[in-house]
Specification:
Layout: H1 2-28, E1 31-35, H2 41-53, E2 56-59, H3 60-63, E3 69-71, E4 74-80, H4 88-95, E5 98-100, E6 103-110, H5 119-122, E7 129-134, H6 149-168, H7 183-187, E8 195-196, H8 205-209, E9 215-217, E10 221-223, H9 232-236, E11 242-243, H10 261-269, E12 273-275
Parallel strand pairs: 1-2, 1-4, 3-5, 4-6, 6-7
Antiparallel strand pairs: 2-12, 8-11, 9-10
Length: about 280
């Protein structure tokens, strides 16, 4: 019993230390981070950074409903790269709002490769610091998701720790801007490739987690023409009833194991603001 209490005390002490570090840094630095998530990876990373910086997290699918000027000492963007560039909603959000900060950073999540993927965001807003973050693969239209995503995420967390240090130290690097509109904006949109099987129970998970409000439930499930190709609907359906090609039905669905379906639904449909949030296990 004594050993158990000693361990609990150590955990609490570590938690207090992290909280103190966060508050000490946040006393002089205000910080906002905007994130876009489909299957939880970006939310996972955003929360981890917020835990160490006391940053205010704002979901882009929520914030895109209005246009305003955001002002703070530090502003960041965290998003998955699509077709080696920005999700079209992230691009639209940045173009339609104003951002005033001494330090602006971007964290680009990728699973395979990146070829100056940060260049698209640097082409529409000045970026002081950009970082790439490898996360588990979720685009099961092309490849299978990993058997052990926690092993991949262990490496992701180590990289996040490095990024946190860079942000706190106001590290800068040169991101070569790309002026061309990204492939996701040019080519994504119509969900023609989404197919529904008769396993669908109309549970509503796909509707509640879709960041683009692109799915409606009626007599049948209806996909509109605002698809972000985030694959939340394909990956999060408990019946695996939504697919894009026959082989994807045989592949493992993916959701970040430290982020719940409710977390994703809340981020994409209900409020979407978290202050210094913690990771919710499932």
């Amino acid at each position: 019993m004594a050993t158990g209490w000693r361990f609990q005390d150590e955990v609490l002490a570590e938690s207090d230390r992290l909280c103190a570090d966060c508050l000490e840094w946040a006393v002089s630095i205000g910080m906002i981070m905007f994130y876009f998530t489909g299957t939880g990876n970006s939310l996972f990373a955003a929360r981890k950074i917020a835990e160490s910086t006391c940053a205010k997290l704002i979901s882009i699918p929520q914030a895109i409903r209005e246009q305003k000027t955001y002002t703070d000492d530090c502003i960041g963007f965290i998003y998955p790269q699509y077709a080696n560039g920005l999700p079209k909603m992230v691009r639209s959000f940045i173009l339609n709002n104003s951002f005033e900060a001494d330090y602006v950073f971007a964290v680009d999540l990728y699973a395979g490769i990146h070829i100056n993927a940060l260049g698209e965001i640097a082409g529409i807003i000045p970026i002081n610091y950009g970082a790439y973050l490898k996360t588990p693969f979720n685009f099961i239209h092309m490849f299978n998701s990993p058997k052990n995503p926690k092993a991949v995420l262990a490496k992701t967390e180590k990289r996040i720790e490095e990024i946190i240090v860079d942000i706190k130290n106001r590290k800068t690097n040169v991101i070569r801007p790309r002026k061309a509109v990204g492939n996701a904006t040019k080519h994504f949109g119509e969900a023609r490739n989404k197919v529904l099987t008769d396993l669908c129970t109309k549970c509503g998970i796909c509707v509640n987690t879709c960041p683009a409000s692109n799915i409606e439930i009626g007599e049948v499930l209806h996909f509109r023409n605002k698809c972000e190709i985030c694959y939340a609907c394909v990956n999060l359906c408990p019946e695996h009833a939504i697919y894009s090609n026959n082989v994807s039905l045989k592949r493992r669905q993916y959701r970040n194991p430290y982020v719940s379906i409710d977390d994703i639904a809340e981020a994409n449909n209900n409020g979407g603001t978290i202050n210094g949030g913690t990771i919710n296990g499932v």
